[in-house]
Amino acid sequence: SLAEVFLPEEPGAAAPVGFLQQLPSYQSALRRRNAPGGGTQGDSTGRRGAEARVLEQEGGELAARPAREYPLSIAEKRKLRDLQQADTKYLSGWEQWKRTSNKSLKKVLNEVKELSSYLELWRHDIHSIEGKFGTGIQSYFSFLRFLVLLNFVMFILMFSFVTFPSIISKYGIFNSTFAKIPPQNTEPHCTVYTPSGNKGLVYFYTYLKDLLSGTGFLEVTSLFYGYYTIHTAWFSILSYNLPLAYLLATFFYLALSFFWIIKRSVEGFKQNLVHDEDQFQSYCNKVFAGWDFCITDPNAARLKHRSLQYELQTDLEEERLKRKIADRTVKEKLRIYSLRIFVNIIVIAVLSGCFYSIYRATVFSQENSNDISNMNFQANLLVQYLPSIVITLANFVAPQIFSFLIGFEDYSPAFEIRLTLMRCVFVRLANIGVLLFSLWSQISYCATDECKTCGYNYKLYPCWETQVGQEMYKLMIFDFIIILAVTLFVDFPRKLLVTHWSFKPVQWFGLQEFRISDHVLEIIYGQTICWIGTFFSPLLPAIATIKYFIIFYIKKISLIHTCRPSARPIRASSSNFFFLLVLLIGLVLAFIPLGISIAHIPSSKACGPFRSFNTSWEVVPYTILGFPTGLQQVLYGIASEAFAVPFFVVICLIMFYFMALAGAHKRVVEQLREQLVLVRFDPLFCTPKV
């Protein structure tokens, strides 16, 4: 039987028999063996008894499944359907009602699922892109749609629990009232905050500057942290703790993003494991199953031909490099390792230069952005946007240098791409961290006793959370302006030159290549800014939603009219997993500055919902003190080391168990692959041709 074939011969590596018996191939063989003609000829009663035994082995719930869901032939499905109908009359009334209800519920759910698919955002557009350019580019637009939905949910969350209660309580809607608790044991000079709102006659360009920088009239709106000064709101007899809701909403949108990304990445990880094969299987898959049947456009078909050719050439090049590495002498190894060390020193120097430039630009911008007496409109706007400009230049220049240097390190083509991408990811995400570190160094710098009593630089940053939110807002706006400007003033003119000018250098330069990885890094960079900035600017997810919504159409038009698809497309399953992995790295890195801002840096005493607390985190123990004594003891016990250490040990044991289980399943898969290779040499499976 198949179970005997699949069982390992080694006594120390016994495969789980139950796992093998759940395989579809084993179940199909079992049904064929018990089906008519699969064994000895018997009467209809014996056949029906064999089929009944199969259904009994699979359980009553599986027997209630429709016949079309079984991996059987048409004749077997008809017999199975007749058997199910004959078996229904022997069921009790409760079982019959249960089976009928399950069928009706499945039918309703399928209809609802089919209807919801028509309401899916950009469904037709993404299918059209998939049909013309393949699944690799389609995965980028699906990823962009995911970020639109994620930011929209984040906006709904922050608006519902933070912005909406503040607005209705301030304006007395629904007979609501509010209370502001002034800071306790705080010097008066720490509570002075005069927003830079516009007064008197204001020129039009001032509104434009405020719109681009988040200052002026925008600084006093619900867009930024300083607007939320309410401590408690009352709705009839219900009280609403806004500081606690603000902090919990922040934790919730981070947790929601984390688990949503994990859920989507697990699906891609399963597909990635399936495609993680050896070179022989990879070659067979490319030759016999490498074509993308979603492609209908002739240009995309030619591109797919070239990409398959490139992948085969890459595999051969990797095999050549493996033989070359195996044949290297000690002298050659010493030379290549010395060269790699030298290249990595240059990479570190480039990163250091980028970080220092961002630090100096941030310090200069913060010290001179408020000094508008000797500046005109353009100079003041340039000073305020100086950190964003330097970060954008670093994000553009550093990857070009990395792409040039990687050619000297003598890596395989696949590893070159991964290493370059990881360096670019590190540059983009680390630049945000350097910006925040520069801001915190300015915020925490205190040279006088008056400043030390406040805990932060109250003169330069009377409401430092709002000013950090303004920096995140400017990064978001400037990133969108750059994407739009590159499409309008670089891609479109390049398309016109290539199309209407036969000059050889222009034709050699060609159209702009639609590099999926570069575009993904752009939107992940913007999403990391959104995660960090939402605490300081609660409505920033709404801006991110609108931004990504517009970017979808910008990238779609650019792909169809101004760009050519990448000559190095990657598989959709692996690309989706890589996109989500990098996005998860951005989310984890966003935890660090938010954690420092919430738990370490003193909160502003002149604005915000946490001005009566030393830090934002102090609202949690303050709220717990109002709970009953028994509940307080339970919560303090959960937060104690006596609970944390055993909990950590249990989590580690569970993790090791699943790792061992995954290793066992991996060994079973390897054994099954070996059996598939040996099947063609087995005389039991090799039948001679007549």
Structural commentary:
By secondary structure, the chain is mostly helical. It folds into two domains: 123-187 and 189-626, no CATH class; 627-659. Helices cover 70% and strands 3% of the residues. The protein contains 26 helices and five strands. It has helices spanning 2-6, 17-21, 24-34, 44-58, 60-63, 74-88, 93-118, 123-133, 135-170, 204-213, 242-274, 279-289, 298-326, 330-368, 377-384, 386-405, 413-444, 449-454, 464-500, 504-509, 516-533, 540-562, 572-599, 619-624, 629-638, 641-679, and strands spanning 176-179, 232-235, 238-241, 512-514, 563-565. It has a three-stranded antiparallel sheet. Strand 2 (232-235) and strand 3 form a beta hairpin. Helix 16 runs antiparallel to helix 17 and helix 17 packs parallel to helix 21 (516-533). The longest helix is centred in the middle third of the chain and has 39 residues, at 330-368. The protein is globular and about 90 Å long. Mean pLDDT is 76; it is low at 1-26 and 36-63.
